Amino acid sequence: MQCRSDVFSFGVILWELMTESIPWNHLNAMQVVGVVGFMDQRLDIPQGIDPKIAAIISDCWASDPLQRPSFQDLVGRLSEIMRAMAPPPSGRRRLKQSPRMSLSDS
Questions:
Q1: Dihedral (CA of 85, 60, 57, 13) sign
Q2: Residue 27 to residue 88: CA distance in whole angstroms
Q3: Which GO terms describe its molecular function (predicted)?
Q4: Is the pTM of this model over 0.90?
């Protein structure tokens, strides 16, 4: 069984990637433990973040560790988002062929 605190940490890393910010940069380590662990506070998720990504971050930070998604679930959700962002397949491209010389051309 995976450690659900790793899922929480993954949510923080995803938040960092999406916001390009340092979490709790105004707090020392003990203050972070107090704010998150005892006061059950979370980082603010900015409005401009894709709602599906914001939902993943929020789910990773569920107060009850058993309510946090598994990494298998996270991989599936992130894969869906990546597929939706990928350009549609355009089929195989054909390379432009240069005119071929035949033996009769020489």
A1: negative
A2: 44
A3: ATP binding; protein serine/threonine kinase activity
A4: no
Question: In which element (H, E) is residue 98 found?
Answer: none
Residue 53 lies in a domain: yes
pLDDT value of position 2: 61
Of 62, 80, 44, 52, which Cα lies nearest the Cα of 7?
Answer: 62
Segments forming the whole domain that contains residue 29: 4-85
Q: Is 77 within 8 Å of 52 (Cβ atoms)?
A: yes
Residue 47 belongs to a domain: yes
* pLDDT of amino acid 96: 57
Enter the DSSP assignment of 95. P
Residue closest to 37 by CA, chosen among 46, 47, 25, 27: 27
Q: Cβ distance 106 to 37 under 8 Å?
A: no
Distance CA 1, CA 68 (A): 13
Task: Report whether pLDDT(82) > 50.
Answer: yes
Tokens found for residue 51: 């709602």
